Amino acid sequence: MQTSDVVNILLLLCASGSIVWSTRALRRERDWTKAYFDVAGTMLVIIESSDVLREINHRGLELLGYDDATELVGRPWFDRIIPSDQKAVFGAALEQARSPCGCGVCETKVLRRDGTERLISWRLVAIRRAAKRRMIVAAGEDVTDQRRIDTELRDALNARELLFREADHRIKNSLQIVGSLLQMQQRRATDPEMVKALDAAIARVNSVAEVHLALQRSKDFRTVAFGHVLRDICARLGNLSPTVDVKCRYAGALYLDAERAIPLGLLVTELITKALRYAYRPGYSGLVTVDANHAENVLTVTIEDDGGESPLDVTDRELGSTIIGAMSAQIDARLVIASESGSGTLVTIQIPNLSLPDPDDA
Fold first, then answer.
1. Looking at 115, 142, 169, which one is the last position of a domain?
2. d(CA 150, CA 171)
3. What is the pLDDT of residues 235-289, one digit of tens each?
4. The domain that contains 228 carries what CATH number?
5. Max intra-chain CA distance, the chain
6. Distance CA 270, CA 250 (A)
7. Which residues pair with 106 in a beta bridge?
């Protein structure tokens, strides 16, 4: 035997050993992969390009109610697992996975062995095999219970919202009845001071009613478009004086939670009422302007009159002044009054550190 033959034999033995070692390594990797596949907590299936089921893990068998994979493997996927009315949805996800994007998602029902159905959220990815064949690996998570809980919670929230809207509707109607009764009493009153007192009471009731009406129209039943509330308050109070107009301007809808909207509406109502009552001589014309805006997390509302008959006093013992103080404290508002006889009054209400909610994000 020549030396070259010995070398060739040694090289062949080395190559054979390398092949054996590589084969064993591949088998170990395959076994590890199979183990990971079977112990996964998510349903995993492998679907051939012909839509035949190639592999299914233990979780998949458990979820579908089968004991032996041979009952499913090698059979058409759509025949045993996917209900007829769900085939189009899963088929579209398959096509997505086989497309260049290589991924598909869907949510379909699956048929269990006992005939019951479960809802599965699927994520599908394609893996390329020899001869450009593409198999699909599909991971499915049972979301049946979660969707049921979501539906029950949504139904409960809808019922709660319906009850709140009905309650708020009844509150608004009750306030309107109270306002109507006060108006009837006012029409019968002969004492000018009684008429003024009833005017103020009607304005307060209407102010609260306006907020409740805005709540009925809100998307989330928690926030109101306070700019629209101000507009309606100004329109109502403008009818109290035949010679003094009340104009309202606001930047945006100014969505505000109801806990602040009601006290702020009452506060503005009292300040406008005081301006109409004390800033102008009887029969004199004038203009009360209400401005509202929100900037740098500060909501600012100003009430300005051009009367100047008498400076605004919120320290007297009138009920209106008491309400102004109480409502300001309730919403942590800063009240600044610039008032001089003969030059009108400017009242500035500021609520700092206020980030207005957006009902579309609810």
1. 142
2. 31
3. 888 888 888 999 999 988 888 888 888 889 989 988 998 888 888 888 888 999 9
4. 3.30.565.10
5. 139
6. 19
7. 122
